[in-house]
Amino acid sequence: MLNILMVNFPAEGHVNPTIGMTQAFAARGDQVHYITTEKYKDRLEAVGATVHLHTDLIRTASIDSSTPAGLSAFMNIHIQTSMDILAITKQLSESTDFDFVFYDRFGAGELVRDYLKIPGIASSPSFLISKNRMATNLFRSNGKEPFQLDEQATTSLQLMKERFGVAPKDMVQFMNNTGALNVVYTSRYFQPDADSFGEENLFIGPSFPERKGENSFPLDALQDKKVLYISMGTVLDHVEDFFNTCIEAFSDFEGIIVIAAGEKADFTKINPAPEHFIISPYVPQLEVLRHSDVFITHGGMNSVNEGIHFNVPLVVLPQDKDQPMVAQRLTELQAGYRITKDQINVQSLRDAVDEVMSNAAYKEGVQKINDSFQQSGGTEEALAKIDAYLQDKLV
């Protein structure tokens, strides 16, 4: 039995991919302590984790990381959240000797590893990306002055060093933690430039454990109907105009339109929709995708993987972060139809949906990626490689 500490960045696209690994550790008798926020408590406890909560600074934040001010706000959330996680880690370590820490590419992972002085295994919810490319993409500040930490960030980092004796090597670390092994929730086939990543990267494919919880969504309404599912993820702001464009574009769609509006959406700004629309702050995505014919998505990796799992052709509207990279790869493999931000309108949405519904090549492209997921090693391979690594450390 191992004592495992898991830390993560509190967002759906980061926590959900780790549920399968959490379940796999717990199912074989390991003690899993997972540091996260209230939003994810029930689903992690349902698969066997002991959950420890920190304040959720990201859930209600409105952040535009493409601007210097927005990037500063994002980095301050990373630093403060890391401080909170380190404080919980310190408390837990007084009564538990952890064998290793399993952490997300985003967040406090390497800091916790360095504080505890134990092995670290990283977990990547999206494609692997080189540190140089990450730094260029994130800190380019629109080609103007180099990004500079503000006074709040500088003071917080000094406090972190004083309290916990650790500090990040650089700011990129908060978005690109690495470990002795890196568990990647995709396949080598789907990963761009896969040959450039070594054997320490375990491409195990995504997993989709059943998510526990109350669900009042009218799934019966989707039976035997054409279903168009629309979701722009959980962290984008100001999506009401886009949903209004969707209402206009698909007002005469012969089937059901499901829109996952997200908890930040202002429903007073969303226009009245025809009866064949279901618009809800929360949608049980896996269950809806099971019935869907087309998925319009922002291109977040978690959503894309889930769409592929159910062989649903994708219309991808990438916004930022890893989404343009995901959209590009889907386009290369003809598994998705991409619409850039400046091309989103009523006609382009109609054309895209018509294209992926009428052209069987998209379904075939999705199926090839799904096949590669099935052929990946899954959680069993990850457990075996982690155990072998820990044994070598003991020799």
Automatic annotation (TrEMBL):
This is MGT family glycosyltransferase. InterPro entries: UDP-glycosyltransferase, UDP_glucos_trans, UDPGT_MGT-like. Belongs to the UDP-glycosyltransferase family. Pfam families: UDPGT. The keyword Protein transport does not apply. Keywords: Glycosyltransferase, Transferase. The lineage of its organism: Bacteria, Bacillati, Bacillota, Bacilli, Bacillales.
